[in-house]
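pls design
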């Protein structure tokens, strides 16, 4: 049951806008790619949707596609974008910069295997030594969210990150299953509103980006 606590922190987790590699179907992971014009427009649309929110701080993945989106979404607010490696997208190792279709074809046997596993069992599956598991992604991501929540009790914070991180977080928090929210399904510049005391997380709203 949600705690009645005036010190709860409100987080808006926003995915970056569309990038050139998103458009081309290339695995980005922790490499980077600039926003397309559509991506800039998506970020601007989300900025308008959130313009009435009184953000007290802005955090972002240190990858440019996220920090650029954060600069757009925060509009004219006089807030510095604080970047963090812990908010980066999943590391995809040697597959970064290669076609998504090729990646999926190569690991189809593991995707098929995962379908037979429970949600808990799926978390620890690693496709390769240098590809992060869900467990590894959520470990660093939630740790950073908890640090932010503890530092900003009773405040509202914008956190711009990546689709894989937000999707993995929502599944971990019980909002959806992997079948409900398949890989790549969280939209560019979409967001999730989350309430937290620094320990537990309560999903208040999940919304797709307007284009």
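designed seq:
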């Amino acid at each position: 049951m949600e705690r009645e606590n005036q010190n709860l922190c409100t987080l808006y987790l926003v995915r970056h806008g569309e990038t050139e590699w998103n458009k081309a179907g290339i695995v980005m992971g922790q490499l980077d790619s600039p926003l397309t014009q559509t991506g800039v427009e998506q970020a601007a649309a989300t900025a308008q949707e959130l313009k009435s929110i009184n953000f007290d701080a802005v955090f972002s993945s240190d990858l440019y596609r996220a920090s650029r989106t954060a600069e757009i979404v925060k509009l004219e607010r006089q807030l510095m974008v604080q970047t963090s490696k812990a908010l980066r997208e999943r590391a995809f190792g040697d597959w970064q910069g290669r076609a998504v279709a090729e990646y999926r074809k190569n690991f189809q046997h593991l995707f098929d295997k995962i379908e037979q596993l429970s949600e808990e069992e799926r978390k620890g599956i690693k496709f390769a030594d240098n590809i992060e598991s869900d467990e590894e992604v959520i470990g660093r991501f939630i740790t950073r969210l908890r640090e932010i929540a503890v530092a900003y009790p009773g405040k509202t914070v914008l956190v711009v990150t990546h689709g894989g991180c937000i999707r993995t977080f929502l599944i971990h928090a019980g909002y959806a299953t992997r079948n409900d929210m398949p890989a790549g399904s969280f939209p560019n510049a979409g967001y999730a509103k989350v309430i937290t005391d620094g320990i537990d997380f309560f999903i208040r709203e999940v919304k797709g980006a307007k284009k």
